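Our consortium's second objective concerns turning raw sequence data into structural hypotheses that experimental partners can test. To show how far this objective has progressed, the report includes one record in full. It was chosen at random from the queue rather than selected for favorable results. The single chain below, 261 residues long, was entered without modification.
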Amino acid sequence: MSMISIIISTRDSGLLQRISENIHETIGVEYEIIAIENNAQYSICEAYNMGVDKSNYPYLCFVHEDVLFKTNDWGKRLVSVMTADDKIGLIGIAGTKFRSTYPSAIGQGPGLSKFLRGHIYHFDVYKDFDESIQKKELEDVVCIDGVFMFSNKKVFNSCRFDDKLLTHFHGYDIDFSLQVYFNSFRVIVARNVLLAHYSNGNYIGQNTIANRKVGKKWIKKLPVATKDTNLGYMKIRFLDAINWIYFIRTALKRNIRKNNT
């Protein structure tokens, strides 16, 4: 049964109409769209959990409304991927093979861009990888970007968006990815689905606060990298330390500039 519930937290009727028409033209399987009208009365975690509670189909797709799918039959493709391997619990189109304890968005920090996989409008990372990696259609990661998240209700029975911890619009993708990963499901990036995202994201303010909360929640499990990176314990810890030094130095510089103005 390859039916998909597509859950969108929406605040713009025009964008919702555009993505709805685009989904109809490209998805390739039976689907429903569950739009949660959300002018900041809910966090994105609350909106997504509400959407799942209202859903009727076994596969779940969480997607931003300011995107357009560029791949035909993308729904059919992703259902086939999950059907072929029931250990796959979460699919994205961009993600990272390494997650530090320090509070960042995906791929931010020194030395971390090399762990990025996939491609969307504001993550143009292909140019940094060798050809053998670029040719991989599916690749294991630790976390995916929240612009597009594809899962199923089997996974959601043990992993829900943490609406108690995350009360705004950030951090939900990293936290949910880690839930899936540490529940022994595979988190993967699929390069056979292309998406145009008409936003560059927001990596300050509430985003930093949310990622601090996520880091604290998973402090006993992080840092972590996928097995195929072949990073030993000391290398993982070294990368984590380097990123904390970077984070602290950046914060100090910001405070110095603020005090001098």
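The partners drew two points from this record. The radius of gyration is 18 Å. The domain at 4-259 is CATH 3.90.550.10 (Spore Coat Polysaccharide Biosynthesis Protein SpsA; Chain A). Both points have been shared with the crystallography group to help prioritize constructs.
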